[in-house]
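Loading example: each entry is read as two labelled lines plus one structure line.
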Amino acid sequence: MLLRVELTEVWEEARNIKAFRFNRKLDFVPGQFIMVWLPDFGEKPFSLADEDLILVKRVGAFTSKMFELKEGDYIWIRGPYGKGFEPKGKNIGVIAGGIGIPPLYALTKHYGNHFERITLIYGARSKDEFALLDIENYVDEIILTTDDGSLGVKGFPTDVLAERKDEFDYVYTCGPEIMMAKVLEIMNFKNVQVSAERYMKCGIGVCGSCALGEYLVCRDGPVFYGEQLKNTELGKFKRLPDGRIARL
Amino acid sequence: MLSIKVAKLKLENPLILASGVADMTPDLLRRAYKEGAGAVVTKSIGIEPRKGYDNPTIVELPYGLINAMGLPNPGWEAFYEEFKNEKFDFPVIVSIFGKDEREFAFLAEKLSEVADAFELNLSCPHAKGYGMEIGQNPEMVYKVVKAVKDATDKPVIAKLTPNIDDITKIGLAAEKAGADAVSAINTIKAIAIDIYARKPILSNKVGGYSGPGVKPIALRAVYDLAKALDIDIIGIGGITTWQDAVEFLMAGAKALQIGTAVSLRGFKVFKEINEGIERFLNEEGFSSIDEIIGIALEG
């Protein structure tokens, strides 16, 4: 059911990324998402960064409209939906890429006490694109990587993971699909949970738009165990809104 | 005990995944079968790729859903390319939609190789110029069914709209044109308004209502059709529990399609319903499902 909520805080987190806090605390599992409706402008899925917080990257018409909203404005939400993370492992690696940070922020903030040591490896294209860096309060070590070398290690988070994977007994990841496919390859699909993304319409397991292998990202995911994704198209192709196969 | 023959197809059990529900890809169709469906219907396929309507495309209500997806589909060519190399261990019924009998016949001819049967979408309530706008007219239903029968040797199922004064009129038109079966009902035209936004929620404004709330209406449609028609009837509309399924079988449906319940309960709903039907048959002393089909029509 749709719920109208008021925005209580809106701020810029990074270049082209804004955070929106609303006046309702949702009972959620880290990794779950909500659908956000702006009347006349559409409805899109967003991962919850916290019980009352989403992060939005400006990529198109809908998110540009979101960027015009201010404190006191309303958005309409439904959810939380989907299967979230299940806390497993003691010494974990958290591999984030770009706007993939929100569900991992929720994981470290809300499930932190399940783990003994959390290492975050977080990559972005450039130094001004990192969001939610107060995640440092919830993790034991942070390694930042940038594609252009403007901050931290020059390279990709997966380069760091490949070197340090033996330190971790479990890995969690969210980010660009190519990066997540690489994480799965490095981990040999074992001891890893992946928050996947596909074009999504209904969000509740009806329309099938978000098909990924034999799964629906909205119902069976968005968080999957590595083993589930072994023989799927993850990292290979996606589908257009009309269902045709398209390159990533 | 549960195996059934419907529209010349042999099914391991009477449950069929309904069109437009988690049926975008070959892998999802296999998943439905693996989890207990006896057959599947694909998303409705048309001439050209269609991305469908913008979101919101769904409204969740206490007793069901209103959807207006807008017939998203890859178009017949991309569908054919993807399905021609796939092998399935179960009947795959291809749903098709067109704006007139020529388009329907064209699609049936082009897709015969990848279809075990066709279901004609004469009933989508929210796509201008398609579906229900054709399916409310008995003459058009006759023309479309006839043209498709002439274009393919595969069984043809006409999916009927409940948005009409008397559903048996269009059922009889389909039967007269040679349909092997009718399926009923498609969704009921409906709307939802958000009182704070002060406007309809769906981007298309109107959509089709499905789920437990429509079950008694669907059951009545099946009951009326079973009394009026000689061809097979496939019951659709809010079937969520095994008791619902038994009701539809007793009203004269030979097979049943499950749609909204897959969203409400997950793919496991197929297994739950099949187990429930089988248990009921055993407990009530029936030896096969055929014995209860239409049993409530007597007297």
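Chain A touches chain B through 36 residues (CB under 8 Å).
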